[in-house]
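Example record

Each entry pairs one chain with its bound ligand, adenosine-5'-triphosphate.
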Amino acid sequence: MAGTVAHGYPIATSDLTIEYPPHGASPAHVAVRGLSLRVAPGEVLGLLGESGSGKSTVARVLSAAFVDPGPELRPVITGGDALLFGVSLRGLSRRKAAKLSFNVGFLAQDAGSTLDSGSTVAELVAEPVLRREKHFDRRELEGMVVTMIDAVRLPLSILSKFPYELSSGQRQRVALARALILEPTLLIADEPTAGVDVTVRAAISELFAELQRDRAFTALVISHDVAVLRAVADRIAVLQQGVLVGLGTIDEVFDDPSHPYVARLAESFHDVD
Ligand SMILES: Nc1ncnc2c1ncn2[C@@H]1O[C@H](COP(=O)(O)OP(=O)(O)OP(=O)(O)O)[C@@H](O)[C@H]1O
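Structure tokens for the complex follow.
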């Protein structure tokens, strides 16, 4: 990619360096260094790496135009660039951010377990639409909510329930419905199976893959779980200590690991196979 960033890709980063500025007694911290990636339309790229490797930092930078993580968590691009649909995220104007937000959905880490406990499922799934357009036609919205609940394979009887009345898998399905109701062309999903019982993780991954096939959205899926990425991702990017150490299909990356960390990962993965 030689330093230039391609236009038209849902996600393109070029030599991207991301830093957390100094905060109180903590010095500045470079969390991602020189990351160059492209995600093609309709592709699902999995971002894999151990805890602290920089996965969430990438997600935060890519979604910063729509979700402000708060001053302590706000990472800054200090080198290279990141583009969404050809729009640079460095010095993004409000107008461009608003325009991008029509195309990009974000599924935050723990989205299922942080649903507002005072709202019903119907209200929770309708909320992103009403946030964008306060006076959206109620009848049409009801139809959209029902379609979405059906799409995430939940029974309609769940619409009047509150999050605490649901299982972890059901809550995560509600979170997915909220992320997809605005029909984003790009979805950034940070650990879509976090907070979900181990027994239903595979079901959530399969549901994600099915929804992606039906709706053909592009996605960046962050996970430390190879099984999740095997179910949903076309290619994976492996991060270690903020540096890209592997990129390709899962088999390409693990069958020919050019980096010792990836080789170790591949070994541990084959052990459990
Ligand atoms: N708000 C912050 N201020 C300073 N440093 C931070 C901040 N958040 C994360 N970091 C540091 O940046 C690095 C990358 O963290 P990040 O949360 O992106 O990792 P991760 O791969 O998503 O980890 P996990 O899988 O545990 O969520 C880590 O070294 C972490 O300590």
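Residues 20, 29, 31, 49, 51-57, 72-73, 224 surround adenosine-5'-triphosphate (CB under 6 Å).
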